[in-house]
Amino acid sequence: MGAVTLEPGDHVSEHYHPYSEEFLYVVRGQLVVTVDGADIDLAPDEAIMVPIGARHRLVNHGSESALAVFHLSPLAPEPRLGHVDTEPLPNADEPTLHVAGSD
Fold it and tell me: Residue 55 CA to chain centroid, in angstroms?
């Protein structure tokens, strides 16, 4: 379980969860959730369940910060197996800082 805050224009790149359903509840702001190519508008106090394996992304097309709470269940057998990106991550072409011992 966690929370995500997206500022106007921000997005979460398309991905899927091979072992988990994802439940997403919008607390504040407006989000467009694209699930397997279909856009779904969510306002505060609205929620969606994304089925296992469904490609999805989040976008804040609004003019204010959006806050959503999410929950994944059941969990993948290992954290590295739980999230598969299907499009480039934002700023993927920018250099990243590597900390010694983190590789």
Answer: 10
Distance CA 66, CA 8 (A): 8
Q: What is the pTM of this model?
A: 0.83
Q: How big is the CA angle at 64 (ends 58 and 21), to the nearest 5 degrees? A: 25
Angle, CA of 53, 70 and 32, to the nearest 5°: 75
pLDDT tens track for 77-103: 998 899 999 987 666 655 444 444 444
Residue 79 bridge partners (DSSP) = none
Q: Which residues of 13-22 are buried (b: 16+ CB within 10 A; e: fewer)?
A: ebbbbebbeb
